[in-house]
Amino acid sequence: MADSLKLSVLDLLPARTGQTSAQSIDAARALVKAADGAGFHRYWVAEHHNTPAVVSTSPPVLIGILAAASHRIRLGSGGVMLPNHAPLAVAEQFAALTAAYPGRIDLGIGRAPGTDPLTAWALRSTGPDDDPVRRFPEYVQQVIAMLAPDGVGVQIGGRDFELRATPCAVEAPPVWLLGSSDYSARLAAQLGLPYVFAHHFGTPGMEEALALYRSGWTGPGKPETFLTVNVVVNEDLNEAWRLARPQLHMIAGIRMGSLRQPVLTVEEAIDTPPPVPEEQFRQFGQSWLVGPAAQVADQIRELAATYEVNEVMVQPVAGAYAREPKDRSVAREDTLRSLGKQFCLAD
Known about the structure:
The protein contains twelve helices and twelve strands. By secondary structure, the chain is α/β, with parallel strands linked by helices. The mean pLDDT is 92.
């Protein structure tokens, strides 16, 4: 009997030592096929720039690639970092994706630039007086209006114009707000939008953010939310933590401001001393779910019950050994297939 809890996937398209961008994208194709076959509900890709360890720079391009490689699963952004882009460009991209893959596209939007100031400038080339982060609520509403089949009216120079993301739309993708603080929770409640807290960051405040979102809800119907969490599944607990070490090194590098290399292989992660004491190093993964499939599945159910959600988005963060094919993420695929069986998602 299938579990009532929905599982979804978050992917940053990690680039490990010796892996090209093309091979990382091939690995994502294989991963989305595994997720689709295992019965996962949706598959989102994040936006990060100028980072040696992450190939996920352009969510709409990657969503098109992954949608073409799958059949049923929903594809989306987790998320598009709106301060980096003109609202019309985002609306046009996701209107085109929705036209090509009706009923399968989500638009998740985040407020953080997700990169360094120089790259943020290069992405948008904004003037010194433009503050896209400050104008985030305005830009979110512009994207939603432009995505609507009827478009939006704009008055320029005393004349009225119509602006549409695509000329003959019959559907607009659902827009989600993403966040790791209470800002987006409040805004999502105010605008009546679904909301996701980025629990996979390991930052505190999820309970408070979800409470603010639910109590401040002003939209029609009920507030809609789910959680994200990092997972590694292996029946040998020690091996599961070995597979987790490359991602732990990546997180440590981000926290210490020293991420200057691709994701380490498992062998490299074991042989490379962490930049902080081992006890503190392990604490970077204290919110992760690591271990045998049945144990991780029970922890996911407990997390969902505690925060009263019916969907959990997992980021499979298991690393790879040097001997493994560069165009696959074997342990990440195994994680998804194992969890799919535990939840009977494909039934």
